[in-house]
Amino acid sequence: MTITITAFERSPDRGKGLARDMRVRWALEEVGQPYEVRLLSFKAMKEAAHLALQPFGQIPTYEEGDLALFESGAIVLHIGERHGGLLPDDANARARAITWMFAALNTVEPPIFDRALATILERDEPWYDQRLRFLEDSIRKRLAHLSRRLGDADWLDGAFSAGDLLMVSVLLRLKGSDMLDEHPNLSAYVARGEARPAYKRAFDAQLAVFTAASTG
Ligand code: GTB
Description:
This protein starts with a strand and ends with a helix. Strands 2-1-3-4 form a 4-stranded mixed sheet. α1 (21-31) runs antiparallel to α7 (162-171) and α1 (21-31) crosses α10. By secondary structure, it is α+β, with helices and mostly antiparallel strands. It has helices at 21-31, 42-45, 48-51, 72-82, 91-121, 128-150, 162-171, 178-181, 184-194, 197-215; strands at residues 3-8, 36-40, 61-64, 67-70. Residues 12-13, 18-20, 45, 57-60, 71-73 line the site of S-(P-nitrobenzyl)glutathione (GTB). S-(P-nitrobenzyl)glutathione (GTB) binds at residues 12-13, 18-20, 45, 57-60, 71-73.
């Protein structure tokens, strides 16, 4: 059955791979599933047809036969459960990998994403510097704990899993920042994720969308 996901017609990140369709593309590449992409304008994302798939009018979504999903984490979990390569077979190891998926999305991503939003939307507010300091402190606390847990391991819990896929996806937004560079093991972890052939295929595919939109 054909898998169709949705993505920005023209991503505001200009093809840097930071929009959340990237993690879904990466997961599909890891498990070797072909997929199609329906590109959406910001206007189309808020229209009834898309709202029926994604109640908040966002990307990404996932359709396969009569199954329609939204939320990038739920989509990656579904892909990991349906296909081999992203979740361990051992039940306890699988539960731990899923725990890391939640940790990436619920514990590590929020201050990182809020900081990114603040730098775009709140820059002119009188309290901007204070807010930025607070968010950067929060990020630094999370990274310090994550770095300590990762230690000198390649991945968070044994073999590469959907937990690593989401954690690397979340940390990529900090690439090149002091906050990430303060932890060489985390920078190396992100680089290991980016070096995976599946990541590269996914990255190139989303970049091709931006390039086509800019030249077309
Ligand atoms: N929790 C949902 C999920 O994980 O699927 C969140 C989905 C979400 O935030 N989607 C964003 C969206 O559709 C795109 S990814 N936004 C449009 C809207 O809400 O109207 C977030 C994002 C946007 C832009 C950049 N960027 O430019 O760097 C990066 C990430």
